Amino acid sequence: MSFIPTGIDQGSAGWQSGGLTGPATGRSQGTRLVRAGFIPLVDASVLIAAAEFGFAAREGIQLDLVKDVSWANIRDRLAFRQFDVAHMLAPMPVASALGLGSNPSPSIAPFSLGRGGNAITLSLRLYRRMQEMAGLAGQEDALTNAKALKLVIDDMRKKGEALPVLGMTYPFSSHNYELRYWLAAGGIHPDTDVKLVVVPPPMTSDALSAGAIDGFCVGAPWNMVAVSRELGRIVAVKQDIWPSSPEKVLGTRPEWAEQNPETLSRLIVALDRAASWCDIPDNRRDLAQLLAEPRYLDVPFDILHPVLMGRFTIDPVGTRRIVPDYLTFHRGGANFPWISQAQWIFSQMVRWGQVAYSPESQGQVSSAFRPDIYRNALGSRADIPAGDTRIEGNAKGDGFMDSTVFYPEDISGYIAGSAIRSAAPKTTGLVDL
Amino acid sequence: MKAALSIMIFDENRIRASIIEEGLREAGHDQVVVLHDIVGLARQIEIIGPDVIVIDIETPNRDMLEHLFQLTRSVRKPIAMFVDRSDSSSIEAAVEAGVSAYVVDGLKKERVKPILDMAVSRFKAFSRLQQELADARSALEERKIIDRAKGILMKSRNLSEDEAYALLRQTAMNEKKRLADIAQSVVMAAAILGS
């Protein structure tokens, strides 16, 4: 068994679900072991900081972090109780709510682990050709870069060359949807104008170097690693596509959340504090040092610190870029699991033919993100939104790169408005045994 | 007579893969293909169309496979190994042992379970062997360290081999430490003090 028996949760008397109105700080009655799976990425920072800098311990939680190698493993190990919670891609609980994927075991997201961190990198060869054809000087925005790639792809077609192969991380990932969004905004059809493949993030630079792929969309720090190895050129970051775009979440099994409400509440309080700590620029040096360790990311501090500060080189010739909120761990409600964002993810699954639209499916999706658990743990606070859904992409400075706005109540209209999209699938997902 | 199952083993560890292959052949499965390299894997799966894919859980390439299955429009869509959700203890045992598998949709549980059980037991046997090997190696390392410590003591204290060994053992007993740890400190001290 994974738990140190302490007499809280799991059927013990004295604590009722839904009864907690304020932060759990100071109510510790004993230490609970929580096993958390994570993938070595900068956006696992909040979990790592919570475990290492005392935020979990202060809430009476011994947070055991287990490094894993694939999202499929994260999903399966959570499903089969090797993990209690996990660092997950925001689309994973949405996919499982819809019965999509190889093992659609139920999972829920009561906490978002922050915003930002992704980028799109192309091989130097491909980017230099874009520069040549579109006259790029090097400071162009993401949309201009996408349109330049479109010119190159048209040229490749004309000359009968092989079309670009682009890597992303997982079929149900922000990377898949962001890469497709960026391509489509530039007039490129992600199904027919390029070939999308999955490449595990730590292997992206090697795959680029070997010519197996011509570009990729992954999280930090792997884009910067490719530039520092003089292999790639960053052409877009997540903020360029949609600043609020959901990224990683804390995922758990619904039944674990039901059986361990107080442990989950305490964990959310610990993660909230850790996230707030991670956001302070002065702490990012310590954070980078910790992430650099072999048991975490095993990437040099000299790459991680600039990434955390949003200051990086986007081209090996030395072109620099500063993205002030490249990684936001807490500010501006970054941890709030917006149901409207789960629905935006659903809209992208529909757009790219992973699932057919139906009002029932949209209803199922709403149960994947759990702002109610988040509110329960943290109580009322000025930075916690009043509603669970909102119109996405219409706030100042938070627009989508193609200037569309997402109204959760009109997903069909939203999809119909996209010129580039995939054909709808014949069934609404895989049939389980 | 049911058609024989086609089984694919993907494991970058060649020795472990061949151990599993052998087990499956002994159990009467003759359609077994072993692959070690991700390059060309997608094509192989397309050509062979295996009913069962056994894969090492420690390979990051599982995500690539999942994408492949997501794209597949064929009816014979593989799903993760969980043939029977009610049998969660055997699934947990598999995950624990480091085995993952994909099984084409619709395949009967009775036909797949023996294959998974076989893979799980061979994976476990393999880790046990590795552990034994690691233990044997560290025992050998310890013997070498103790011999070096003895040598240092014989030279610096002008002792016989038996006396040097007795001194190490006595010190270990007094300090309530392992003989190898004491020997390690002697070797380190000698290195630092240059004796």
From TrEMBL, chain A:
InterPro entries given in the database record: NrtA/CpmA_ABC-bd_dom
Signal peptide interval: none
GO cellular component entries: endomembrane system
This protein's UniProt keywords: Cell inner membrane, Cell membrane, Membrane, Transport
Main location, first listed in the record: membrane
Domain of life according to the entry: Bacteria
CDD domains: PBP2_NrtA_CpmA_like (cd13553)
Record localization: Endomembrane system
Keyword Cell membrane included in the entry's annotation: yes
Entry coiled-coil feature ranges: none
Residue span of region Disordered: 1-26
Protein name: ABC transporter substrate-binding protein
Naturally occurring in which organism (per UniProt): Phyllobacterium endophyticum
Automatic annotation (TrEMBL), chain B:
GO biological process, one term: phosphorelay signal transduction system
Source organism superkingdom: Bacteria
SMART domains named among the record's database cross-references: ANTAR
One MF term in the entry's GO annotations: RNA binding
Keywords on record: Phosphoprotein
Modified residues (4-aspartylphosphate): D56
InterPro entries assigned: ANTAR, CheY-like_superfamily, Sig_transdc_resp-reg_antiterm, Sig_transdc_resp-reg_receiver, WH-like_DNA-bd_sf
Ranges for domain ANTAR: 126-187
Domain Response regulatory: start-end pairs: 6-120
PANTHER family, alphabetized: PTHR43367, TWO-COMPONENT RESPONSE REGULATOR-LIKE APRR6-RELATED
Protein name listed in UniProt: Two-component system response regulator
Annotated source species: Phyllobacterium endophyticum
